[in-house]
Amino acid sequence: MSMSKKKLKRLFPNLIDEIEEDQTNSSNESVCQGSKQEDKAKLKEFLGYNPDIIDFIRRCDTEDEALEIIKYMENKLEISKEYATYLMKELKTKGVRSFGPKKETDYYSKRESF
Distance from CA of residue 40 to its chain's centroid? Predict the structure, then answer.
């Protein structure tokens, strides 16, 4: 299916404006290209990565927050009842940091081991 540029502009004025703006700014992007490529390389390690319950627990500040996540994941059937029981027992006996150090905001983008 082909359309004239005039018809596309009428149907999708903002899209066409963005495309044209992007083309005129492409020479300016080369200055920032290095950082964008570095960001892409950093994120590539986690491409397709799906955080598990331990990742979520490691973002918690308190045991109550972790318990809430465990119960939520159990109710959504993301984890089994047995695994939830195991996690709650560890949480109660060893604390929230027994699952690992706290993952702060932007944890994945700040990783240096890329």
Answer: 13
Interval 75-103: pLDDT, tens: 999 999 999 999 999 999 999 999 998 88
Q: How many C-beta atoms surround the C-beta of residue 65 within 10 A? A: 14
What is the C-alpha separation between 70 and 63, in angstroms, rounded? 10
- Per the structure, the complete domain to which residue 81 belongs is given by 53-99
Kindly state whether residue 28 falls inside one of the protein's structural domains. yes
Q: Is residue 113 part of a domain?
A: no
How far is Cα 9 from Cα 30, in angstroms, rounded to an integer?
28
Cβ atoms of 84 and 74 closer than 8 Å? yes
The residue type found at 90 is: E
How many structural domains comprise the chain? 2
A 10 A CB-CB count for 34 gives 9
